Amino acid sequence: MSLPQVIFFGVDLVRFTIDFVNFFALYVAISLTLNIEFGYTGIPNFGKVLYIAGGATFAGSIAGRVAAYILGVQIKGDFITYVPQIINDVNSELASNWIAAISILVLGLVVGGAIGAVFGYISSFPAIRLREDYLGMLLLAVAQFYQIFLRGFGPLVGGTQGIPVPDPFFYFSTLGLGVRDVVGAAVLATAALLIYFYSERVARSPLGRTLRAIRDNEDAARALGKNDVAFRRSVLIVASALSGIIGALYTFYIGAVGADTWQRYAWTFWPWLIVIIGGAGNNVGTVLGALVFASMTKGLQQSQYFLQPYVPFDVNWLQYLLFAGILILVLLLRPEGIVKEKPSPTLPKSVLKGIETLKRKEKV
User: Residue 306's pLDDT is what?
Assistant: First the structure.
């Protein structure tokens, strides 16, 4: 039942497609949560990595301990010291117990979402008092502090060494080579799709219009009776919870978690790049921005070997230079992004078309 190989110019197209779907879905999900915060509400969250890493680290650490306890795996008194053997035994049990595997996955996602929500709630207090530049710098500093904490506090994820985590998808690896990766890609894609539909529902609802009003002119929104403090807090909590869930899901997919996994450029600056390129305040634009980003990133990874003779520097830097150039061009030539933000319809399209038809008849 192993996946077939389709080789084209030395690239296995099947493996490339699975890897691309994983990467694309992951960044679509993260960027959509950032778009809710920044695009619709105007919160400059430069500490996005904090909520993703928070959900991932706590979910991986707690899920490993709970799985060992439930499955009767001997911890030997020190979980971190013996974690490779413990997780290996846990995965062996999960391979024949799909109910336990799903339970561990659900537990991890709940923990990740809860931790993300708690971090979002804590972050909402400075978000209420600070605006724009100062808030962005504060969240960036807090995210960096959390990474330093992870590196120095061993009991959570083993400090700089990191730890393996239970693999809820391990059962599918016994069905054939590559089957686990297909299932993981399907789960990540489903999560990204659900977040997209949720973001669209929010954008087209009275809540979405209220968030835009607060973003554009909070004084006017406050004069109309809108509690901007409560709305900002709710947005941070929800978006952070979703980020924590995605972080936990990604951790279970790769099978490990550590302090150095969560770099600012990958989990904060890349999502910002996607939102700016695609168009802030527009979910379709965010998806297109993620598609451009994923296509260029994976394309460059596959072509680095061939490009190196023609590039006068280490080709690994080409990605950063290219995206920096694209960002500058977008900000100069099309600051609204690929897809410009449009007013969200308040009624179904069929009703709107009926109203337009009546207006035409009245004019006649």
Answer: 82
